[in-house]
Automatic annotation (TrEMBL):
One family name in Pfam for this protein: Methyltransf_2
Domain O-methyltransferase dimerisation span(s) in chain numbering: 57-129
Name assigned to this protein: S-adenosyl-L-methionine-dependent methyltransferase
Native source species: Aspergillus cavernicola
Top-level taxonomic group: Eukaryota
GO aspect biological process, one term: methylation
GO MF annotation, one: methyltransferase activity
C-alpha cells in the first residue's frame, strides 16, 4: 500500500485513539480497534496476511495444548518469570515441547518471554484460568472445529443453499446424526458442559441488559406484586446466569424468576438455581405452549439466532399463547446487525449458529419481518458497542409500549 494511504490510516487510528482516551466509551474503543486493525492490515503484505490467516488455527491448537498442560494456572500465580522446565513439571511434559508451544503463544502476545525460555503471563493468559474462558476454548476446539472443517464440503454437497433445517446443518453432516444440535449436546454430557461454560463466557464480561435498559420503568413499574406470579421467565437461559445477574441488580423485584431449558440443562443447573431461589422448569419450547402463563416478561437471549424463521415462528406462537394481553412482554436480547460493515463477532457468531443448527444472525429488517409475521410489533432498543440490542414486543392491541415511549433507537 502507498505510503500516503498508510499515513492517512495512521492519522485515522490516532484520531480514534484520542477519541477513546477522551470518552472511554465502548463505541469509541471498538471504533479505535477497527481503525488500528485497518492500519495493521495495510502494513501487511497480502500474501503474508493470507498465510497468517491460514495458520491461525495453529495458534488455537497451541492455546488448547497449553491449557491441557496446565500452563496457565502456573503462569497466573507467577511473581517472576517461569521457565519452560518449571511449566513442564506440572504434567509432566517434555520441556522442549513446552518451549515450542510457548513460542507460538509469545508471538501472539498470549504470554511474554522476558528471557529465552522463561515466561510471564499477559492479560490473556490470566483470563485462561477462568471457567468461561476455558469453556470458550474447549467448546470451540472440540465441538465447533471439526464441524468447521466439514462445512465447505457440506455446502458444496447442498449446492450452496442457505441452511434452514436444524436437522440438516453441518453438525448433522459431520457426525451423521438426525437430531438438532441441542439434542445432540444433551447426549454428550462433556460437550454440553463445555458448551454451557462457553455460553457463560460469552456473557460474563458483557454489559447486562439491566445496566442500560430501563428495567424499572418498562418492566418493574406495572409488575404484579403477587410473589407467586412470574416476573421474568428466561427461556433457553442455559444455567440461569442472566437471571442471577438480574437478581443481583434488582433484589427487591416482585414475583418469581423462572428458568426454562431442556431437562439435562436444568438438571445441571439445579444446585445453583436452588441456592438462588430461581425456579427451574424443564421445557422443550418447540413442543407445547409455555407452561408459565401471564408472566410479566418472557425473555430470550441468543435463542432465536439458533433457528430459521420457520422454527422461530413455532416458538413465538407458543410464547404468545402464554402472554397476557396488556401485561406480558416479550423481550429478545440479541445482535441487531447493521445493514453494512458488521463486526467480526457478528460474522463469526453467524457462522457458528449456521454450522450448529442452521441458525442466523438478523438485521433490524429481518427481526421486524419475523416478529410482524406472528402479529407482534417490535420496538428496538440499541446501545453503544458491539451491536447487542433489546427487542421489546407486546401483543397487538395492548396499550402503550409499541414504539410510542421515549428511549428506543
Ligand atoms: C445459544 S444458547 C443461549 C443460552 C442463554 N440464553 C445465553 O444467552 O447464554 C441456547 C439455549 O437454548 C436451549 N435450547 C435449545 N433447544 C431448546 C428447546 N427445544 N427447548 C428449550 N431450550 C432449548 C439450549 O439448551 C441453550 O441453553
Amino acid at each position: 500500500m502507498a505510503t500516503d494511504q498508510i499515513q492517512s490510516l495512521w492519522a485515522n487510528a490516532q484520531a480514534s485513539l484520542e477519541g477513546f482516551q477522551k470518552t472511554q466509551s465502548e463505541t469509541s474503543r471498538i471504533e479505535a480497534l477497527a481503525k488500528v486493525t485497518k492500519l495493521q492490515r495495510a502494513l501487511e503484505q497480502p500474501k503474508d496476511a493470507i498465510l497468517k490467516l491460514s495458520y491461525q488455527p495453529m495458534v488455537f491448537m497451541a492455546l488448547k495444548v497449553a491449557h491441557d498442560m496446565q500452563v496457565f494456572p502456573v503462569l497466573a500465580k507467577a511473581t517472576s518469570p517461569v521457565s519452560a522446565k518449571e511449566l513442564a513439571a506440572v504434567k509432566p511434559a517434555d520441556p522442549l515441547l513446552v518451549e515450542r508451544i510457548m513460542r507460538l503463544l509469545v508471538s501472539f502476545d498470549i504470554v511474554e518471554e522476558p528471557e529465552p525460555s522463561t515466561y510471564l503471563p499477559t492479560a490473556i493468559s490470566k483470563e485462561m484460568v477462568n471457567r468461561p474462558a476455558i469453556g470458550t476454548v474447549e467448546s470451540l476446539f472440540c465441538e465447533f472445529l471439526p464441524i468447521m472443517q466439514k462445512t465447505p464440503e457440506y455446502l458444496e454437497a447442498t449446492n450452496y443453499q442457505n441452511p434452514e433445517d436444524p436437522l440438516r446443518a453441518p453438525l448433522q453432516y459431520t457426525h451423521n446424526v438426525e437430531q438438532d444440535g441441542f439434542a445432540w449436546l444433551c447426549e454428550h454430557p462433556d460437550a454440553l458442559t463445555r458448551f454451557n461454560n462457553f455460553m457463560e463466557g460469552q456473557r460474563a464480561n458483557r454489559v447486562h441488559w439491566g445496566d442500560w435498559f430501563p428495567i424499572q420503568e418498562r418492566i418493574l413499574a406495572g409488575a404484579d406484586s403477587n410473589p407467586e406470579r412470574a416476573l421474568l421467565v428466561d427461556i433457553g437461559g442455559g444455567r440461569g446466569h442472566d437471571l442471577m445477574l438480574f437478581q443481583k441488580r434488582f433484589p427487591d423485584a416482585p414475583g418469581k424468576l423462572v428458568l426454562e431449558d431442556l431437562p439435562s440443562v436444568i438438571d445441571e443447573a439445579a444446585p445453583e438455581l436452588n441456592a438462588c431461589g430461581i425456579e427451574g422448569v424443564k421445557y422443550d419450547f418447540f413442543n407445547a405452549p409455555n407452561p408459565v402463563k401471564g408472566a410479566r416478561v418472557y425473555y430470550f437471549k441468543f435463542v432465536f439466532h439458533d433457528w430459521s424463521d420457520e422454527k422461530a415462528r413455532v416458538l413465538l406462537n407458543y410464547v404468545i399463547a402464554a402472554m397476557e394481553a396488556g401485561y406480558s412482554k416479550l423481550v429478545i436480547e440479541e445482535y441487531i446487525l447493521p445493514d453494512k460493515n458488521a463486526q467480526f463477532l457478528h460474522g463469526t457468531t453467524d457462522m457458528a449458529v449456521m454450522m450448529f443448527c442452521s441458525g442466523l444472525e438478523r438485521t433490524r429488517q429481518q427481526w421486524t419481518s419475523l416478529l410482524e409475521s406472528v402479529g407482534l410489533q417490535p420496538t428496538f432498543w440499541t446501545r453503544e458497542g458491539e451491536g447487542l440490542g433489546v427487542i421489546e414486543s407486546v401483543l397487538p392491541g395492548s396499550n402503550g409500549t409499541n414504539g410510542t415511549n421515549g428511549g428506543p433507537r
